[in-house]
Amino acid sequence: MKIISGSLKGRNVLGYHIDGTRPTMDRVKESIFSMIQNDLKESIVLDLFAGSGNLGFEAISNGASFCYFVDKNPQAIKTIKQNSSNFQTDEKIQTYVLDYRKALKLFKEQNIKFNIVFLDPPYHEKILIDLLNTLVKEQLLEKEASVVVEMEENSIGASTVPSLNLIKSRSYGAKQVNIYKEQS
Fold it and tell me: Is the CA virtual torsion 184, 96, 38, 25 positive or negative?
C-alpha cells in the first residue's frame, strides 16, 4: 500500500496484513479522494476502524490538519504509530485503542467534531446505520461534514439517516462506497 497523492505521495503504508482488516484498494482510495478533495484542506478527520491508517494518512497527505485514528486492535494502533513516525506526522495524529462506541462517547465528552469521517467497519457486524445515527445524534459532525462509508454493496439505502444526504455512491465489485454530507 502506498500514499497515492499529496505531500506523502509514494510513501509505503505498513500494515497490509493486520489480522481482521480489509485494506482499501488503491483504485477505490483514489476514487474516494477525488470525490472529497475539496473538503480536505485544514479538515479534522476521524478514521474509525482505522486498520493501518491508510485513509487517514492519505487525508493528512492531502491537507487535513489532524486525524484521530481508532481501532480496537492494539496491533493496528501500533502500526499506525509506526507509519506516523515514518511519515513524521506525529503532531497531526491521535490514536485510540478503543471499541468504536467508547471512542464516539469520548469524542462527545471532549466536544470533538469532525469535518470528514471514514467508516469501514467489519461487514458482518451490520452497524452502519447505528454508526451514522450516532454521529448525527451526538453532534460529532461539523456543518457540512462528509462521511465516507465503505460497505458491502447495497447494504444500506440512500435515505438511511434523514439528516445526512447521500451525495455520491460508487460500486467496486462487491464493495460500495457512499459519501454522505450533513444537511446544512
Answer: negative
CA distance 83 to 163: 35
- H/E run at residue 27: helix 26-36
The model's pLDDT over 119-157, given as tens digits with 9 standing for 90+, comes to: 988 877 788 888 999 999 999 999 999 999 988 776 665
Q: Which residues pair with 178 in a beta bridge?
A: 149, 169
Is residue 125 within 8 A of residue 153, CB to CB? The reply is: no
Domain 26-182 carries which CATH code? 3.40.50.150
CA 115 to chain centre: 11
Query: Nine-digit cell at 100?
Result: 468504536
C-alpha cell at 99: 471499541
Q: What is the 3-state secondary structure (H, E, C) of 65-126?
A: CEEEEEECCHHHHHHHHHHHHHHCCHHHEEEEECCHHHHHHHHHHCCCCEEEEEECCCHHHC
Task: Tell whether pTM > 0.90.
Answer: yes
Give 100's contacts (C-beta < 8 A, 6+ positions apart).
Answer: 48, 49, 70, 72, 121, 127, 131
For residue 119, give the C-alpha cell. Answer: 467508516
